[in-house]
Amino acid sequence: MQLQVTGIHIDVGDALRVHVSERLEASVGKYFDRPVDAHVIFQREGPGFRAECTVHLSSGMTLNTKNDATEVYAAFDGAVERLDKRLRRYKRRLKDHHNTQKSPLPAYDAPTFVLAAEQEEEEREDTSGQADPIVIAEGTTKVPVLSVSDAVMQMDISESPFVIFRNGDGGINLVYRRDDGHVGWIDAGRKQNED
């Protein structure tokens, strides 16, 4: 397992790194034999600590969990418990769908941009007279090829508000959690029949 442990405004010692490594390997190893990538971030959150765990499975799925507690070890242990529940749920869904996919999911690179906040844009508009947003960063993001049910599963296990994916036809799709609790699906590639 490739593991990265990061501390934001806190020092992550060797004892905590060993604890993180042992707990993650035990938790993920119960469900998956193939290597995975994991990133754990510790940071101060008010009077306590927050632990965020991100695990990239070899199947292409990503799981995210976080937990707040008064102690750093308790914050991590809570996040790993949530991760363990999600891994168990994901493994059960894979068995229920009889999904025997052995290779990672195909994905396409899509350009991504980070735009300046609105406040900065207003200041820029006042000084230059233009309303163009400022591009702060550029990069690429993987857009996986998924079925709609797999995209919903990815959204559920990663706590993301939405998932962008390509369907079997190659069109861009989006699934998202609606305010009423249901899941919405936008299929941008589907053409409507004209009368």
Automatic annotation (TrEMBL):
UniProt KW Ribonucleoprotein keyword: yes
SUPFAM superfamilies: Ribosome binding protein Y (YfiA homologue)
GO cellular component, one term: cytosolic small ribosomal subunit
Pfam family of the protein (one): Ribosomal_S30AE
Keywords, alphabetical: Cytoplasm, Ribonucleoprotein, Ribosomal protein, Translation regulation
Domain of life: Bacteria
InterPro entries, alphabetized: HPF/YfiA_ribosome-assoc, HPF_long/plastid, RHF-like, RHF/RaiA, Ribosom_S30AE_C, Ribosom_S30AE_C_sf
GO molecular function: ribosomal small subunit binding
Localization of this protein: Cytoplasm
GO terms (BP aspect): negative regulation of translational elongation
Presence of the UniProt keyword Cytoplasm in the record: yes
Residues covered by the Sigma 54 modulation/S30EA ribosomal protein C-terminal domain: 132-184
Family indicated by similarity: Belongs to the HPF/YfiA ribosome-associated protein family. Long HPF subfamily.
PANTHER family per record: 30S RIBOSOMAL PROTEIN (PTHR33231)
Reported function: Required for dimerization of active 70S ribosomes into 100S ribosomes in stationary phase; 100S ribosomes are translationally inactive and sometimes present during exponential growth.
Subunit: Interacts with 100S ribosomes. Associates exclusively with 100S ribosomes, which are dimers of 70S ribosomes.
Protein name (database record): Ribosome hibernation promoting factor
Native source organism of the sequence: Tepidicaulis marinus
Gene from which the chain derives: hpf
